[in-house]
Sequence to fold (235 residues):
Amino acid sequence: MIPDWDKPTGRPHALPLWKAVVVLCFLLRHNNAQVLAAELFEISQPTVSRYSTRLRPVVRDAIKELGFGLARLPRDEPVLVDGFLAECWDWKAAEQLFSKKHMQSGHNVQVVSDTRGRLREAGAPLPGARHDAFAYVASGIKAKIQKYRHRLGDKGYQGSDLLTPYKKPPHRKLTEVEKASNRAHSQIRSAVERCIGHLENWKILGGCYRSPLDRFPETLDTVVQLELLRTYEPA
Fold:
């Protein structure tokens, strides 16, 4: 058989822009190895790495210009705050990332949702060893939600300006009114836990982050913007 010399051989050196963005979203959504993405999209692993590095800030900034999140939430709406641990490799140089609460290494990520469980904001990532009450302030979330009158958090935020459940006093049980208040508080605040569940469906956050740690803030910011876009509902 005579070979067709005009037919291109090997893998393409580049993809159309829209498909390169699909590659990025695939990596963020599934947290697969770049070698696997290269096989699926029939490109080289270095090309996958290049798309991941160069397109993250482009996609993030493009969605930010649309102004989703807290900017579109009315001031009289309640906001719910909670944190989760985005796990990463147990790097020897990053012992401060180890969370004794979760017995894992990772970043403490503070999340804000509305009462429907839709993501509205996420704070700057902090070492996993940090307590939620500290991270609430240090991540910038406290400053961003000050204009909202009704701000709810769990018991981990007691001592902050968030509305938290009643804690059992040392020498008595909770009253029936306090128990009822805690139940109502828990029912409302459960929406932010659903929000975190949806955010962790992006396995780059819900799985184990394997890339260099200095890239995590940019990765988190990109995923947050993609999730804001995914859950956006026109008025």
Notes: The beta strands are 79-87, 98-99, 104-113, 119-122, 126-127, 151-152.
